[in-house]
Amino acid sequence: MLSFVRGKLLVSLLVLLTVSLVGFALLHLSGDLAATLAGENASAEQIEEIRRSMGLDRSLLAQYASWLTGAARGDLGTSFFTRETVFSLFMARIGTTAILAVCALVVALTISLPLGMLAALRPNSWLDRLVSSLALSGQALPSFFLALMMVSIFGVTLRWLPVSGSSTPLHYIMPIVVLAVGAIPALMRLTRSGVMEVLEQDYIRTARSKGIPTARIMLNHAMRNAILPIISLSAVQLGTLLGGSVIVESVFAIDGIGLLTYRSIQRGDFPVVQAMLMFVSAAYIVLTLLADILNAWLDPRLRQKR
Amino acid sequence: MEEIQSSLPAPRRLRMRRALQHGGFIFGFAILFVTIVIAIFAPFIAPHDPIAQNLGVRLLPPLWMQGGRPDYLLGTDHLGRDYLSRLIYGSRVSLIVGFSTMLIAGAIGSALGFVGGYYGGRTDDIVTYVINCRLSMPGLLVALAVISLVGGSLATIILVLGLLFWDRYAVVVRTATQQVRNADFIAAARVAGASAPWIIWNEIRPNVLHHILVIATLEMAMAILSEASLSFLGLGIRAPTPSWGLMIAEGRSFLFAKPYLVWVPGIAIFLLVLATNLLGDGLRDLSQPEGRR
Fold first, then answer.
1. For testing the chain A interface, which of B35, B122, B142, B279 should be mutated: the one with the most A CBs within 10 Å?
2. pLDDT tens digits for range B132-147
3. ipTM score for this prediction
4. How far is A77 from chain B (nearest CA, A)?
5. For the whole model, what pTM was predicted?
6. Which CATH code of 3.20.20.70, 3.90.1150.10, 1.10.510.10, 1.10.3720.10 fits the domain covering A94-255?
7. Is the peptide bond before B240 cis (omega within 30 degrees of 0)?
8. Closest CA–CA distance from residue A17 to any residue of chain B (Å)
């Protein structure tokens, strides 16, 4: 188990390093940051001045090296615009985004697990068809459209919920629902197919023939085995939710790291954008690593695979 | 090649009948087909010029609401442009982005999947590592950042999305290739002296093509959604070109008084993505003899 964890950890670290290099290179090679910062009316000398003062005149590798050594010490640079450190900008907002993402995942799981299980019990029943239709519709709804629809219905017409900001818990309801709808289809489909597969196994038939009630079979036997891929997918979804917060936070004007990133992208605030890319990648890598370790702990067979 | 996998040799007519009985497949196919026809013949169908402004008829409601006019079936936007014509031309952007992204991403992902799945060993380790790195990068976020620097246009959107969203092709093709790699007919081809690229193209590709087709439709839906999101955030298609995501962004300021400016393009995106996903699910069901999974 220990060597399994060590091997996984090493690969994860390597992936993180590669991703940071690729992200850094992409942002630098896609355009002239100094020109973006200087604005449209800047003269060539002004652009050169900005390039020098920001250290953008050095080679790409030198810039990456200094960024990396800084990042290793927890120093992610300073924002080009507010002059605050990226770290403090993030720390002030990360809580808001984390609450959104975790609540959305919890909501998504409480809806998709029971519905997926019920659908698997009665394949091709009306309930199964309803679940499939819900999954398909959820997949086809752009999150920003769903957000605006909800604002139009619950915020404007019915006046039940506040439409923007993050001052009260009520402000979080619509963003959480929008994020959850994005995560539900994949989780529901996976629960359905996973449980269906387990239900065809011999030991389930044995349990059934012994007269064990369906509810107990589902919880003790079927879910125990179907839960492994769901854990992995939940980890992936949590990473996706952090990325998806860019759209949802900007629609609802919630001051989390998603909105911070969107504004930074718009004004070319490179250190903040790079930090966000790294943060979401790192979150994804750590979460999938934890899911892998948890799965290996739950199912010893997985430890044998490389 | 599905014929080989099913227990009974399924003649084309049998497959046609199964397709016609699959409601989702028919629905998806019909909507996608109609959208393609509308997009191709947009200049003949659209009643007005989609970018011609007519400030005398600003913010007209659709025909069925009070004050609607028959010459502007879906009303007009804040610049007096005919909403129906913008919707019709907007389908072009969605479909072009969807198809082109599908081709670029499909080529990259399938190539990686074939190579990793066929050669195995150290080569496969590298392919798996590359896929892992890609999966660890937040796709839409990278697209947003890169497009904001390069500048939004149809070409950059297609290129960036195509270069980013190849991961599912790679994962699926790699697994599918591993499954057929050890078949007897592959061994026979190898003994006969066929080269690896020849075997991949002539023996393996036909056998995993139905997997690629399924992923391609699902990924096309993803690309259409991504373009809409990018354009909505103001980092995609530039005004005045009509794109459904951009139309929602422009209509957003009027959400309180004129919600249909958001609803109309939103429903269009929803229907097109739903249809494409239904088509993909239908293809998957039809390629599996035992039916729905």
1. B142
2. 999 999 888 999 999 9
3. 0.87
4. 18
5. 0.89
6. 1.10.3720.10
7. yes
8. 9
